[in-house]
Specification:
145 residues; 5 helices; single chain
């Protein structure tokens, strides 16, 4: 049953690439910051309805969590703005490949040190090789003929 999570992550990656293209086009039409606001507003409404009908958590507990855990929304907004700005300039592939590179680098740091309560997984030569290969692929995507 654990196979479902990598599959969901794969589908999430498809959604992010599709979102990047859609938001990039929206940004060209109405402006980057405005497109980011529209994207987040529609996403917020969708999550509101999902929470109302499917939510099983406890929103009233929000006051008892560490305040740093609320920064995810700011980071998400930053991500959307970056995507709206970058996609029209360098394309979806280069933008998403760069995002993935950033995600993997930060994820390796989080894993290595066990940050934010994550399971600690040491950085090793195999992971270093993977990062080097990833940067090679990023170079090939970005390189102009």
């Amino acid at each position: 049953m654990k196979w479902i999570f990598p599959l969901l992550a794969l589908v999430g990656g498809v959604a992010i690439s599709t979102q990047a293209s859609i938001n990039g086009g929206l940004g060209r039409k109405i402006g980057a910051i405005e497109a980011s606001l529209v994207s987040f507003a529609i996403g917020t409404l969708a999550l509101l309805f999902i929470t109302i009908f499917l939510g099983k958590g406890n929103l009233s507990s929000i006051g008892s969590i560490p305040k740093w855990q609320l920064t995810g929304g700011i980071l998400g907004a930053f991500y959307v703005v970056v995507m709206v700005l970058a996609v029209p300039q360098v394309g979806v592939t280069t933008t998403v490949a760069s995002v993935i590179a950033g995600q993997i680098i930060m994820s390796a740091i989080v894993d290595h040190y066990g940050l934010f309560g994550a399971k600690q997984i040491p950085f090793d030569l195999r992971r270093l090789a993977a990062l080097i290969l990833m940067f090679g692929s990023l170079y090939l995507f970005f390189k102009k003929d």
